[in-house]
Amino acid sequence: MIKRLLVGFIGMVVLMLIVAIGLDRWISWKTKDYIYDEVQELPHRQVGVVLGTAKYYRTGVINQYYLYRIQGAINAYNSGKVKYLLLSGDNALQSYNEPMTMRRDLMAAGIPSSDIVLDYAGFRTLDSIVRTRKVFDTNDFLVITQRFHCERALFIALHMGIQAQCFAVPSPKNMLNVRSREIFARLGALNDLYILKRQPRFLGPLIPIPAVHHVPEDAQGYPAVTPEQVLALQQLLANEKKTAQKKLLAAAPEKEPKPEMSQEVVPPFRAK
After folding, report:
1. What is the chain's alpha carbon radius of gyration, rounded to the nearest angstrom?
2. Which residues make beta-bridge pairs with 121?
3. How far apart, in whole angstroms, are the C-alpha atoms of residue 151 and residue 102?
4. Three-state secondary structure along 67-114?
5. Are strands 140-146 and 163-169 parallel, antiparallel or unpaired?
């Protein structure tokens, strides 16, 4: 009896391992056409999303996964493959801030702060991918991380109807433990997508990359003038016209209204 139970238990464990490995391979196969290993092969995209990780291990040793992602982001930006870098990571503790750490290192490498956007609510890969679409209004972007992470991130994107590609940066050689844990991370992602149907923990207002400038269609164009300056000039001209009209109305003699008619209300002046 005990022998049969033991054989049955072992058989169930083996079956579960086969299913887990099969699902792992299915995710890899599903996403392989959207992954690039060489920077020169990357498609041109406006936004590159750098998925966060700790810069140092608890022992104080620097994290090679982090270094490769930062270098990949620098290479993609300097090659003109992306115009903006969205740094998505965990900021759960005051002493632990993945996006700010990445920002400091990227700026030290010469990338201007104006081309760096921070996402402090990238607690999980699902959060980072979905928030890029729903919060930062970007549906076709380049993910920057290791290949095994690319596959999970792209699978989430495909399931959510998000167009994305991935730049697979190198991985450290001793990644057996990380790759083993990735199998369980993928099972967790499948559970989130198909069973629990989870969404990001936090969303928030729309923050397009780059920010959308609303300029009137009839606004005059000025060379070497930013959209904000054009709008400010338009507002200044409108205020000057409104002031001039008020002076004219104040100088004009008032007319007595006819008894049988109500006094007309002068419509407000609108700047064209």
Report:
1. 28
2. 90
3. 22
4. HHHHHHHHHHHHCCCEEEEEEECECCECCECHHHHHHHHHHHCCCCHH
5. parallel
pLDDT tens digits along 234-268: 787 788 888 888 877 777 665 555 555 444 444 44
Reading the block at residue 30, the tokens are: 């599903």
Q: In 225-268, at which residue ranges do the beta strands (DSSP E only) sit?
A: none
| Inter-CA distances, 134 with 157, 161, 202, 206, Å | 12, 12, 11, 7
How far apart, in whole angstroms, are the C-alpha atoms of residue 12 and residue 135?
43
How many whole angstroms separate alpha carbon 100 and alpha carbon 93?
12
- pLDDT digit string, tens, across residues 135-148: 999 999 999 999 99
Instruction: Please give the Cα distance from 257 to 179 (Å, whole number).
Output: 86
Block residue for tokens 């919060």:
135
45 DSSP assignment: E
Q: How far from 251 is each of 100, 237, 244, 245, 254, CA to CA, in Å?
A: 60, 21, 11, 10, 9
Please, which residues have CB within 8 angstroms of residue 181's CB and are 6 or more apart in sequence?
none
DSSP codes joined into one string, 174-202: --HHHHHHHHHHHHHHHIIIIII----S-
pLDDT of 35 higher than 70: yes
DSSP single-letter state for residue 206: -
How is residue 39 written in tokens?
């920077």
Nearest CA among 55, 26, 54, 47 for reference residue 129: 47
| Inter-residue contact 182 to 65 (CB < 8 Å) | no
SS3 254: coil
